[in-house]
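re: ur question from yesterday

yeah so i grabbed the chain u mentioned. its 948 aa long if i counted rite. heres the sequnce exactly as i have it in my notes:
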Amino acid sequence: MHSFPKLLQAQSERVLNQLAEQANELLPLSEQETQVLSFSDFVFKQVLAHSRFLLEIRAQPPKADEWKSYATWLAQDVSLVTNEEQLMHVLRTFRHHMLVRCAWMQTLEISSQKETIYQLSVLAETLIVAARDWLYQECCQSWGTPCNVQGKAQPLLVLGMGKLGGGELNFSSDIDLIFAYPENGVTQGGRKELDNAQFFTRLGQKLIRLLDQVTAQGFVYRVDMRLRPFGDSGPLVFSFSALEDYYQEQGRDWERYAMVKARIMGADSLHYAQTLRKLLRPFVYRRYIDFSVIQSLRNMKNMIEREVRRRGLVNNIKLGAGGIREVEFISQVFQLIRGGREPVLQSQSLFSTLQGIRELALLTNNQVDILQDSYIFLRRVENLLQSINDEQTQTLPEDALNQARLAWGMHFTDWPSFSQVLSQKMAAVHQIFTEQIGQDDDDEQTDAFDEIYITLWQSELSKGELASYLPSKNEDVAQKIIHGIIMFRHDLNKRTIGPRGRDVLDELMPKLLAKVGERDDAGQVIERITPLLLSIVSRTTYLELMLEFDEVLTHVIRLCAASPMIAEQLSRHPLLLDELLDPQSLYQPLPLTAYRDELRQYLMRVPEDDEEQQLEALRQFKQAQLLRIAAEDISGVLPVMKVSDHLTYLAEAIIDAVVQQAWQKMVRRYGEPAHLVQGDTKQYGFAVLGYGKLGGWELGYSSDLDLVFLFDCPLNVVTNGERSIDARQFYLRVAQRIIHLFSTRTASGVLYEVDARLRPSGESGMLVSTIQSFDDYQKNDAWTWEHQALIRARMVFGDADLQQQFTQIRHETLCMQREPLTLQQQVRDMRIKMHKHLGSHQDTEFDLKADPGGITDIEFIAQYLVLRFASENAALTRWSDNVRIFELMARYDFMPEDEANALTQAYVTMRNELHHLALQSLPSRVDISQFVDERQQVLSSWQKWLGE
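ran it thru and got these structure tokens back, copy pasting raw so excuse formatting
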């Protein structure tokens, strides 16, 4: 080695001074010892911690072929181990000891660069195999020996990937592994039988911990398992048959690149290597010259170049233009295109592959020489760089000391001289790289904006890099997008997706991300849209639809952006995506009266006797119509009052269908009540009353249904079927069946939540009441709050004569004379009680429904006015909805017109906000600073009509 420059001479003085203070027994140092300890802080720290490392170097100088002794040396140390903690200590000490010797040989060039990377690879393999073998014996003692069906013991096979598989590991590399075992079966001889997958999963977890866990001594190797099938989301271990199935059905091009390097670790496992290689060969090496891979390789090349440009990797000897990865990539290009026909290319070793390329004249001798010479040069730079402080880095140093170290280690007098030669070698590699992979013409037209989203999908971006392309320039938004994509990719690995589906997704995602990235709410939209994408990734048709038709993609983004409720419904029920195939019809409201006919036609597709399909069809119809209504709401096609009208008419259509199904089921079982006279119009003697929001035509997106059931039937009537029962019992069972049909949870969820507690006597009363008992209860036993509820009631299903009777009962009940002060007090008391249970009770929040000045106050004012003045003017009982009640009050001069209009406006405005909050899946509370004028108006009216 040539003499030290000044900076290293100063460093050597610091080393000698520190040794004099901490390890004086090691002095004096030879010139070579001084050089190595001054060059590598890692070696120096290890020598300070373990003086025997240097003493052994003196007694037994390192030799280039000493890797042959690694297994024997480590076996001696491991033979004394009795538990995992000791083993962790032994493995780490051995790793550091051998790395010191490797660094020694590398720095002083006792070994060539080829020999160095092979030493490092054998060291890793030795440590992995020793750890696995010790753990295997321990696990077999605890859980029994894993065997196949013939009783033959099964091993854990560790596949080394990447540079480890190729025997080309770098100094501070992490290790890419895949765990496999030959055959399924169960353990034998243990306390409890485990299947082999469980046994090897536990063993694999222990092995990773043993190697990867950071202790006071550091780690053995950082272990990366992401190259296994399905990545982090997949099982930790795979049987040979599971590996074969995965790679045949779902293997992607990048996994072919990875499998080129796969090699089973450990000499005792080599007899399985041929089996595994035979199994994987059809996936990795095609029997024909595989030019189909060229486009995939170009895509990967484009991704590399985007990453280089994006990260400005001018000082990265691995990822930069002409770096280590480009050499590796060139060799793999020929392996994947021609390896199936040319066995000489079927090697994990880059050096062997380059020799095969030379023999086949796929590159000129000069080109192969350039690649091999540059590769060895770059690998020495990489290993020297990493050996300075045992750090996994490929970025050239910027500080003067480490630049001086590297230049000296590479035989240059100064850094500029080294940099010049390095640049020349990398430029030569990059020229060959560009010639062999070719240019993708489309890439020339790809601007920086598109590139950033391709990179975001295919690799990684920092939030700062992404933020610079967002309209908002907001790093928090960028971080949300990045997090959403990472989580999506993680979840994607759990899905079974064919190669075609993945290819479509790879085209679609940058396009989708570019559209979403234009929005200020981009982070939020990604969170909402990725669950939807996950639900359809196996349905390539939907992905292709969004890819091919720009307006459909825009449409999906728009809906998901506008409403998490819609996004959630779409992701939960992908069948709804059929509704998106025709955006025009989606935004075209149905006539209100058309819902019954639409539902009738929808149910005609389902066999009448298939109850399960009938239930599912009802739910699917509801969800499809909700999607249409929400889309029309979002786009402004429907104002708030019309939204409620559509939701209400939809509910009534479904109630009609549910009652029909329940009725038919009971009739088939028991026959019909004998008193019914069937003429031109079907008679039921049965009615369903809608209360609350249903009764008032004010349903929201997630409203439940307040229902009360009535019937009209004389005493002692029975049904006319073979299994005859009392008619009143029949009506009870119909009502029970209705509730069952609404509340049964199918794959598409619950149809509606039903609340029947507003019936006479509430939960303690009968589920169904005769029309006569209902009449008697309302006029003699009902509380004032029940009369308030009755104002909002109307019949949503039933015979015409029952409709007439109910209307008369409601009218007469509401027109009863009431003492004004008592009525005021009772309405006030109920309002206070509701606020106590439902109000926000927050100084900073306003609950639109339950707080003073909100919707409930408006409803109570309307109800009070009807109960107070209906005895004076019977016309006030006509309507069940608040808006038309206020119209009546103004028309008949019970309330000034401007006050009625103001209350109506406040009511509609707050209801509109409630709808929008529901679309956002948000609660009914807003900031206290909102709706100030509306609240003041409502409170003023409350004080006027109901104040003390």
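noticed a couple things. Residues 121 and 164 are 6 Å apart (CA to CA). also Residues 113-143 form the longest helix (31 residues).
anyway ttyl
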